[in-house]
Amino acid sequence: MKKYIIYIIMASLLTACSKDFLNKEPHEFTDAVFWKTADQAESALGGVYSPLQGEEALGGEEWCGMEAFSDIGYMNDNYSDFIAMTEFRAVQNTENDLSLNSYKSYYQVIKRANDVLYNVPGIDMDQTQKNRILGEANFLLAFAYFQEVIRYGGVPVYDPSNTESALTRATGEQVWGAIETSLKDATTQLPFDHEEGRPGQGAAWGLLAKAYAYQKKWQDCKDAAEKVISSGKHSLYPVYSDLFTLDHDNESELLWVLGARYDSYPITPVLYLPNNVWGGAHAEPVGEGWRLVSATNAFYDTYQPGDKRKKATVAKRNVDVITYNGSTDILKAPNNQSEVVCVKFMQPYAADYTGWAPGLNVPALRYADILLLHAEAMMNLNGGGPENRTTGVTVAAQSFNLVRERAGLDAIAAPTFNDLMYERKMELAFEGGDRHFDLVRWGLAAEVYNSLTAEGTYKPKRTFLPATHNLLPYPQQEIDNSNGSIEQNPGYN
After folding, report:
1. Measured CA angle at 459 (ends 455, 463), to 5 deg
2. Distances from the Cα of 194 to the Cαs of 66, 200, 250, 256, 454, in angstroms?
3. Rounded to the nearest 5 degrees, what angle is found at the Cα of 280, between the Cα atoms of 278 and 282?
4. Contact 41, 35 (CB under 8 A)
5. Is the pTM of this model over 0.85?
6. What sign for the dihedral angle of Cα 367, 368, 371, 377?
7. pLDDT tens digits along 428-468
8. Phi, psi of 177 (to 5 degrees)
9. Which domains does the chain have, with CATH numbers?
């Protein structure tokens, strides 16, 4: 094995003593002194988590910003290159603050997870502890590859025995294969019971079901989802809005969360918070909210009557009552471009504004998502799906209606794919861009996006061309750094 420097940049991630597994000092070791002890293995694993905390990854702007690609959100802040991508008019990807830094953060996870998987098997340590470390590394590796492949298609598949592998782009199919392999390994290494902030076996099976759905492997998707459903370890929390509070941000519905603690990353709540909630009607620290991403008026109007998720997700200026910084009143938000803001992650600020990072975990993978993927698999296996959107499928009803009835809506005996599209849109809104990636994988993005009229200057009329826009343009700096071995995605310069 070549000698190489291993950088483990530890960020303090989580809030209680139960989360000490990531609260370590930074280290820098060479092979000669590292990969010797169980403590070093745990420290290296902590380093796999740390890039996810960053402002431009799962813990911040990019995770929120992906919603601007869909029909439900837009970016308030002037990231011109990123906005050009969300409006499908970009010719390349030079957005360093969001896109490039996100790409690099997820690839850091890929590099560090592979180092753990390559070196930890040789450490003499407790086998149960070793299995858990390897299982977490496999899950995080798959999660990072998943985020890269749905954005860019094929990316380099890193081999720790050949560091030059980072300069050779794999195909999308090869990346999906790597994801499947890692998650299958993780299902044999992880227990269902897990510490807060760590993935358990439910997360591994759940992400595997999602990976299968993206590849249209419907029987495999169904089987993987049923591993989670039949485990008895996960269930829907009764009150949808409470999932996004400090008291309930680690319920059994949350298969995996990116853990948070006060005054540190992640910073999701402040990213959605308007920078002037009350417009002078009540006391507040004006300017503290970043209002990075907001909702469209059109999205606000698409909720079905009685859907409890509406109040938990969005609020409209001069219409809806919210609670913020100790006051309860009608939202003003005069600086917001649309009339609608996302309030899904604002509850930590209900009593008072507590800083840019109030300690709310990021809901990276939820049981509701897996139930809807199971229903989707059942539809596709029984005559439904994107090509037969009005065909009712009775066998999809059980999983589907658990999510729907939690939202306060009547059950549907034979839900259609159109029904499923509504549920996924409303259930997962503002959680990392699932709406956009769903429309792309269903082959419906052009139909949905191209039929929308402009909504102000913040959400203009757009033209989506699947041959180009199913993928984002590859980060130009990564192309340049590869000396030509990485090529741009089709349709971009």
Report:
1. 105
2. 29, 5, 11, 10, 46
3. 65
4. yes
5. yes
6. negative
7. 999 999 999 999 999 999 999 999 999 999 999 999 999 99
8. -65, -40
9. 6-257+473-481 (1.25.40.390), 266-354 (no CATH), 364-466 (1.25.40)
